[in-house]
Amino acid sequence: MEALSKELVDKIALECIELYRKVPKIGKPAAGEWNVLSSVVRLNTETQKFDVVSLGTGSKCIGATKMSPEGVKVHDSHAEVFARRGFMLYIYKNLEMAITSPEESIFIKENGKFRLKENIQFIFYSSQMPCGDASIIPKSNDNNHGNVVTSRKREAEDGHDEEERKILKSDDIDDIHRTGAKCLPHNEQDPKEPGAKYHLLGQVRTKPGLGDRTLSVSCSDKIARWIHVGIQGALLDMLLTEPIYIKHFIFGGGVPYSKESLTRAFLNRNGEEQITVPVIPYIYQATAIFYYMKSEQRARPAHTSILVFNFGLVEVAVHGKRIGVTKKMERTRRIALSISKYYLYRRFLFLFQLDPSLKEKYALDKLECIPYNVMKRKSQRYYENWHKAKENFFKSWTVKPDMWSFCITEDELAVNVIELNKMIHYTDPRRSIMIPNFDTPIVF
């Protein structure tokens, strides 16, 4: 695996930013607001041609009490998560094509599983460093990025009075850029001392949420997990000959950046010897700057997230749901994004409908009787790899309730192909964006 040229790195970053520019205005930051942009990019190593296969924006996360047992809300709306979930849609679409039109797919079917073609690699771009451990970076006076902007509420919570904040701003050399992500409750906590001793390094952290505390780990932790066990997740791992690893990570220009911090967060936590991973990714910083990045002029995070999917889908979300959802819709599937657990599970089961031989291989009889969480636990290789990574590298992790026991009903499976195609092709002309069009009531 060869490193990318500086020219190619900048071209990729510019292409991601240009695609975002073409997205309709709805969901983009208003005046004074900032957002993060992330993308997954496919690279053909034979031709060096690339294309953006998924794009996400966002910086919000819903609290633990607002999680959806029915799988219709996306709990973590950070850009990195939206881009990764959009990438999962891209993988599902290519698996469908591997069954119906193999020459168009990036996969080859072999002995009931799917192998990624050798000339295909994936690149992850993000306009800034991921929240959490990787973003804890030493400041220096030759740094032209300025101070990280924090809200007055956050500063008050941190317990700094006005005078102390002035001291911290004037002494960048003995200070660090901070993260809003919190250490896990059962672990050692940040000392929050002035300057460089404010944070502990190498900690698994959870994101701040809307209202109550979240159970979603930081993007530094999630990306590290993707590096160790693959970006595809448990369900897709069942169908692939091997996990999908991101080969290259590109971060945006004009923002605080440290390759050393990224390497620590992804590969070498707690000062211990680097853990062996299947693929050690290359890490780069592009020169291209995302216009909507955090700055003194853009001090408030945008409330919305945007998803762009390679096969013609654009969705706008707020609080983990489709934008524009009314109270009347709250108890229908219409609130669900295409990247929700519910719809990703439907896409997974659709593959078994599309190719009955898969049902035979995995000894799956009645698909409508298999809950989401039960199906995930069938992914033996994935959870073996995850257990090793958790024990040897992370040492600790957030604990979520085993609440996602929803099933896809027989009626939903019967119309799977029709409704899933609607998610790609139905257009709402009032918003000039493509959205799903479902009215199926949620059964609790």
UniProtKB/TrEMBL annotation:
Chain spans, region Disordered: 137-165
Compositionally biased residues, Basic and acidic residues: 152-165
Pfam family of the protein (one): A_deamin
Keyword Hydrolase in annotation: yes
Requisite cofactors: 1D-myo-inositol hexakisphosphate
Catalytic class of the enzyme: hydrolase
Annotated keywords: Hydrolase, Metal-binding, tRNA processing, Zinc
Start and end residues of each A to I editase domain: 54-284
GO biological process, alphabetically ordered: tRNA processing
Entry's Gene Ontology molecular function annotations: metal ion binding; RNA binding; tRNA-specific adenosine-37 deaminase activity
InterPro entries: A_deamin (IPR002466)
Polar residues bias: start-end ranges: 138-150
Catalysed conversion reaction: adenosine(37) in tRNA(Ala) + H2O + H(+) = inosine(37) in tRNA(Ala) + NH4(+)
Family named by the database record: Belongs to the ADAT1 family.
Annotated protein name in UniProt: tRNA-specific adenosine deaminase 1
Protein species of origin: Papilio xuthus (Asian swallowtail butterfly)
